[in-house]
Amino acid sequence: MKTGVIILGHGSRTVEANQVFDSIVEMVKEEIDYEIVEKASMELAKPSLAQSIEKIVKAGVKKVIVVPLFLFPGIHIQEDIPKLLKLEQEKYPEVEFIFGRNIGADKKIAELMVERVKEVG
Predict the structure, then answer these.
(1) Helix H segments across 5-106?
(2) CA dihedral sign of residues 1, 97, 77, 45
(3) Is 10 considered catalytic here?
(4) Which residue among 10, 29, 55, 62 is the active-site one?
(5) Domain 3-120 has CATH 3.30.830.10
(6) Of 66, 83, 84, 94, which has fewest CB within 10 angstroms of its CB?
(7) Is 80 within 8 Å of 89 (Cβ atoms)?
(8) Percent of the chain at pLDDT exceeding 70
(9) Short name of one Pfam family for this protein (predicted)?
């Protein structure tokens, strides 16, 4: 089964923020072995989640893994994204959608923060 991955960010009005997001998505692409890896944003930037899903479904994907690049389990994670995925499931009933976990409280994040503190301390 052809699988596609969508890294879902919040989106920003600033070019710099979107460039950082693009860089992270490229790093992910280099590290995982899936047929298609795309980006999407919740708001303020393109492509939207619906646009990315449409693109990869047109490419023949039958399984879509959506992983949010969100630190906290806020409203987007708890409500907005599940609602959007439900709509997409209705649009594409032949496609399996999987919603991954947000980053959350992860030791790797704490280690990165320690590095940042040491950089300036």
Answers:
(1) 15-31, 49-58, 75, 81-91
(2) positive
(3) yes
(4) 10
(5) no
(6) 94
(7) no
(8) 100
(9) CbiX
Give the separation between CA 11 and CA 106, rounded to whole angstroms.
Answer: 22
Separation between Cα atoms, residue 120 and residue 71, nearest integer Å:
23
Residue 68 is encoded by which pair of tokens? Answer: 């949010």
Please give the structure tokens belonging to residue 118: 């040491």
Rounded distance, CA 35 to CA 25, Å? Answer: 14
Which amino acid type is present at position 90? E
pLDDT of residue 1: 83
Average pLDDT over residues 63-92: 97
Strand residue runs (E) in the chain = 3-9, 36-41, 63-68, 96-99
